[in-house]
Design a protein that fits this description.
two-stranded antiparallel ribbon; alpha/beta; 234 residues
């Protein structure tokens, strides 16, 4: 921990252990209390399949069998659908599952660096300790679009989270994510959104001390409120 008020976390390899941790903790929290009377909590009547996928090799292209560009996630969902359909893999049912699904490609984002404000668009400068940032790129290196942004914004409203937006300048080259390759492989609605950090890939990468919890809060809200938000977009 560091900073005048211990408001920062310094560590190597935060990309992308941070969002992986937040997503897994959110999944556990979303399914851990089915006895509550809170209607936002999951019950046995839920019709959704909650999934978190963590992949290797993202920094070198995701082309290996454990990477996101393999068939691991689509084939896993196909097997889940087959199990729920009495052991039969029905292609049309799998396609409908993909089409009805929604994916958050959760990779860390660049927080605003006050020494380089000129490289950021106005109102597109994510801050630490505020919340998850949507990542948008006009050159197609992320899977975000206007519909998926509105969808996640509605989720954020439901769970009282702040959603930041980072639109990279169209004359700049952003880093790619696994979002485009996964969403195009499955035909699934998707968005790129992750927690902002400074000094990415350095031995002292920096995030806010509130950011891991803020990530869990939004991702849990996504699991808990997906069905009701999805119904608003039909």
């Amino acid at each position: 921990l560091g900073g005048l008020d211990k408001e920062f976390i310094f560590a190597p390899r935060i990309d992308d252990k941070l969002c992986s941790y937040a997503a897994i903790e959110a999944l556990i929290a979303s399914t851990s209390d089915t006895s509550t009377q809170d209607e936002s909590q999951p019950t046995d009547d839920d019709s959704i399949i909650r999934t978190v996928g963590c992949f290797d090799d993202e920094e070198i292209g995701s082309l290996l069998r454990q990477g996101a560009n393999s068939n691991f996630l689509p084939s896993t969902i196909e097997r889940v659908v087959a199990a729920l359909a009495g052991g039969q893999c029905i292609p049309d049912l799998v396609s409908q599952t993909f089409a009805n699904g929604f994916m958050i490609s959760a990779d860390v984002s660049h927080a605003v660096n006050p020494n380089y404000l000129f490289v950021y668009l106005e109102n597109h400068a994510p801050q630490l300790n505020v919340g998850v940032a949507v990542q948008a790129d006009p050159n197609g290196h992320t899977t975000t679009n206007s519909v998926s942004t509105a969808f996640l914004q509605r989720v954020a409203e439901k769970c009282d989270s702040t959603l930041q937006v980072f639109q990279i300048r169209n004359d700049s080259r952003s880093g790619g994510t696994v979002g485009p390759m996964l969403s195009s492989a499955m035909g699934m609605r998707a968005i790129d959104a992750g927690l902002p950090q400074l000094s990415m890939h350095s031995i002292r990468a920096t995030v806010g001390n509130l950011d891991p919890g803020l990530g869990v809060k939004l991702f849990k809200g996504f699991f808990d409120h997906f069905e009701e938000v999805d119904a608003e977009f039909v």
